[in-house]
Every structure is written in structure tokens, then in C-alpha cells.
UniProtKB/TrEMBL annotation:
Coiled coil: none annotated. This is Peptidase S66. One of its GO terms (biological process) is proteolysis. Keywords: Carboxypeptidase, Hydrolase, Protease, Serine protease. Residues 14-129 form the LD-carboxypeptidase N-terminal domain. It holds the Pfam family Peptidase_S66C.
Length: 299
């Protein structure tokens, strides 16, 4: 059974930190929005730190994250942005206080490393969703799904896929995130258990051959064989190559999982896109997949 942190309520304090790449713009608009939700926002030192490409050196980012993991008055920690760097601090963090007093940790992209770690080691739910640096570009609906996830309000997603899905209905614990980061977790204590799970995947800026290679690595490691279902989000910003790969991400994915019989849906609104819907990692969900229509709800 996965641990569900207490949902937020108006008046709660939350923290924003940068566990990876440094901020390049103000997140004041995002803070203002969070305050309209009735939250008190505390900014970590990493928000304004600058160390080459990082939001401060590893020591600063570790201490910043640790401060809010240990502070019981802080009810959620939002990663301000992704980039690269979370994997550099995971093993220096002490989650003892977090495990005793769990709280929501939210983000996506590089933050997948941290979300994967707390699911794998502490079996604690977390939120894959918009980050303060992406609030301005995000759709109102995507931001509303983040708010609902944090406050424990009902979430149910229905959308139409532009690609042909593999129909079916499945129930299972939801795991996933950024494909590159999930592959980077393989063989470590931070690797999630894929057996009997609903897996969602997204990535950005990767060529088709790299997507193919990473998915085949997961398949060869036995990660794709025992899934309950596969949810494919956005695989965007793929630059054309001089010699085409010959398959779209949707085509190569279906090729790789063709031998399995679980439902597969494409174009789920999750990833490096404005309409990045919040998904609760570690929660039990149900997907109902038709040729083009998809519904995801939580149990």
C-alpha cells in the first residue's frame, strides 16, 4: 500500500526549490497564483542561486531541499523547474523526516528522478505536474489539475487520441514520468517496480532512435512485459534527421509492445506541453481505452 501524504488546505505553507537547473526568469506570477489558492509560499535559497548551469552547487541544492523535507510546517515541495541535476543530490538527501511526516513533492521532467526515488524506496505518492517555471505557458486546465491533485479534489480525464490506441480496460498503481530519467534510474535503489503497474511515459527533444533504444532497454530488462497498461504522453520537439529513422514514436512504441495484450493509449495530455495534466504517482487508477477515446480515473 502506497502512503498518501495529507492533502493541502487553505493556509498551508509550501516550499519552492530548484533541485536541478537554475531559473532563467522570475516565478513571481506562479507564486501569485499559488497564493490565490490560499497557500503561503516559501522560496528556497536555490531559487536565486547560480552555479554554472545549476541552481547553486550540489551542496546548496541538497541543503535547500533537505531543509523543507525536515520542516513539518511545510506541507508540499514544488520543484521550480527541471533541466538536469536532481540525480546529483538524491543520495545526499536524508528522507527520515519525510518518511515520518510525508508531504507532497511535485514536478516533472528531471524531477522524475526524485519522484521515482520516493516511490521506489518509501512507497509514497507524489505528483507529476506543472512546475512554477512552466505555469505561464501552461493551460488553465493543466494548472487546475495540479491544484486539484494537491488539495485532494476529484480528478478524471477524458480525451480523444489522434493516434490509434490498443483498446482495453485496466486498473493498477500509476507510475512513470520522463523516459530518459526512468532509464537513468535503472539498476539503482531509485528504480520503481514496474510489475502490474499502469506506466505513463513522456520525453522531449529526443530523436526517434533514442526513444527506441531507451524503450528497448526497458523491454530487455523485463519492465514492459508485466504492465497492466501503457499511457504515452507527449514526445515532442524531435528535430528532423538527415537520414529519417523510419518510424514515428507512436509506431515504434507499438512495435515494441506488440506482443503484449494490455491497453496502450497515445497523446495523453502529459509532458513538456502547455496542457500537462497532473498525474498522481503511486495512486490506483483505471484507464478505459477505445480506438481513439481514453478515460483515466482514480480509485
Amino acid at each position: 500500500m502506497n502512503i498518501q501524504p495529507p492533502y493541502l488546505k487553505r493556509g498551508d505553507k509550501i516550499a519552492i526549490v530548484c533541485p536541478a537547473y537554475k531559473l532563467k526568469k522570475s516565478i513571481a506570477p506562479a507564486i501569485a497564483l499559488l497564493e490565490t489558492w490560499g497557500l503561503q509560499v516559501i522560496q528556497g535559497k536555490s531559487i536565486h542561486a547560480d552555479h554554472f548551469q545549476f541552481a547553486g552547487d550540489d551542496e546548496l541544492r541538497t541543503a535547500d531541499f533537505q531543509r523543507f523535507l525536515d520542516d513539518t510546517a511545510i506541507k508540499a515541495i514544488l520543484a521550480a523547474r527541471g533541466g538536469y541535476g536532481g540525480i546529483r543530490i538524491i543520495d545526499q538527501l536524508d528522507f527520515t523526516g519525510f518518511h515520518k511526516n510525508p508531504k507532497w513533492i511535485a514536478g516533472f521532467s528531471d524531477t522524475t528522478a526524485l519522484l521515482s526515488h520516493i516511490q521506489a524506496v518509501f512507497h509514497t505518492q507524489s505528483i507529476h505536474g506543472q512546475m512554477p517555471a512552466s505555469f505561464e505557458a501552461g493551460t488553465l486546465l493543466s494548472l487546475e489539475t495540479l491544484r486539484k491533485a494537491l488539495f485532494g479534489e476529484e480528478l478524471c480525464y477524458t480525451y480523444t487520441s489522434t493516434a490509434t490506441n490498443r483498446p482495453g480496460k485496466a486498473e493498477g498503481v500509476l507510475i512513470g514520468g520522463n523516459l530518459s530519467m526512468l532509464v537513468a534510474m535503472q539498476g539503482s535503489v531509485s528504480e520503481m517496480d514496474y510489475a502490474d503497474k499502469l506506466l505513463f511515459l513522456e520525453d522531449v527533444g529526443e530523436h526517434e532512435y533514442a526513444i527506441d533504444r531507451m524503450l528497448r532497454m526497458l523491454k530487455r530488462g523485463g519492465k514492459l512485459a508485466r504492465l497492466k497498461g501503457l499511457i504515452i504522453g507527449a514526445f515532442n520537439e524531435i528535430e528532423p534527421q538527415e537520414i529519417p529513422f523510419g518510424q514515428t514514436p507512436e509506431e515504434l512504441i507499438m512495435d515494441i509492445v506488440r506482443e503484449y495484450d494490455y491497453p496502450v493509449c497515445f497523446n495523453f495530455p502529459v509532458g513538456h506541453i502547455p496542457d500537462n495534466h497532473a498525474l498522481i504517482i503511486g495512486s490506483t487508477a483505471v484507464i478505459n481505452v477505445n480506438d481513439n477515446e481514453v478515460t483515466l480515473s482514480y480509485q
